[in-house]
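Table 4 source record.
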Amino acid sequence: MPDQERGDWSVYMIEADDGALYTGITTDVTRRFGEHCDSKRGARYFRGRRPVAVVYQESGHTRSSASQREAAIKKLKRQQKQQLVANSAEN
């Protein structure tokens, strides 16, 4: 079964050194965080910023549902994103 049909995709948020929150999707959050930190494969968003930590993660998505959730999170106001992060830390 191709990756996009399985529920092994994750939506994640990374906090940058300036306090900004970056949202993305991947099948391996640890690998992707490393790419953002040390690789040309990282997002352009982190040129001029440094990723600090993964502060939020949702697992069990298909590629399609992960993309839809990523888009929904990106539309949230900063305060709403911070609330997501705070709620995930409580659980």
